[in-house]
Amino acid sequence: MISFNWPIIIVTTVVLYCLTILFLPFSAVQATIMLFSLIAFWSRLPGVCIYEPISFIYLMDFVDIFSIIISIYINPVYGAVFSLVWNLYPRLAGAYKTWPAIAKDSAIQAFVTLLCPLFFAIWGSLAAVVIIYSVLRFVLYWILNIFVPTRGFVEQTIRLIISGVALFFINMLYTQLFGDFFVSLMQEGASFSWALFFIATAVIIVFSVAVFGFSPKKAGKKAIKNVARIVKHQIHRAEAPKLDQDKEDMRLIRDSFQSKDLLQGEDLYQGKRMQ
Q: Which domain holds residue 261?
């Protein structure tokens, strides 16, 4: 089952694209964070828009790795806010994962993200930080579930073990494949990656068409029809007073002719009587 809210998806995507371009002349790092936000948002959508019995797709987003890198190389508060926003906000675009469960997970990830610079200072390795982050995320979620349960204890424990193993391999894969590249984009003096920008755009278009059935052609036609309908409505509203005025003028002209005919008839009648 798939459920998605296209108005939110489209508006968010357009806003993030605009912010990326607006930040670009001033700061390549800030523009890159906006690009990371765009990728994080879209990578999060499958997990909240596609139903799955056990969380696998839900864990495949890039929010974790982006949050960790931003926290270590930019600012831990930025990283925590990034984590909280892009773990929680995409739920508005989907229908799956209950709000209490996703809120708990988002809050825990934001908290662990704040600690990532400390972990990095101790171990000095991004891979080590990712491992600690992945373990703490699920251990803390398991502990929190004891006090604020969303599932039964045994069921939740089994699901967390399965999901925890999956998350470990997913995050380590992302770290090995993209870690160094993402880190290079966050370092001072780094330049904006147009290659990543265009790759992300291409992936978003392909993904939206293949998974969500979104058609840019149909969306474009629908948008044009909506614009044409609005313009037609505005023209009709603009012409309405003019049409009303024309009707009023015709009425006055007709009344004037009728008055003139009446006057001529009375003059004729008076003339005949005088004769």
A: 216-275
111 & 221 share domain? no
Predicted pLDDT at 177:
92
The domain boundary residue, chosen from 198, 214, 230? 214
Q: Span 84-112, mean pLDDT? A: 93
Quick one: which of 86, 81, 75 has its CA closest to 116?
75
Q: Tally the domains of the chain.
A: 2
pLDDT in tens, 204-249: 888 777 765 655 556 555 556 655 665 566 566 555 555 556 566 6
Tokens of 10: 């489209």
Its pTM stands at 0.75
Q: Domain for residue 1, yes or no?
A: no
Residue at 47 is within a domain? yes
What is the residue-averaged pLDDT of the chain? 82
Q: Quickly count: other Cβ atoms within 10 Å of residue 150's Cβ.
A: 15
Q: Are 72 and 201 part of one and the same domain?
A: yes
Q: Can you say whether the dihedral through the CA atoms of 109, 38, 171, 59 is positive or negative?
A: positive
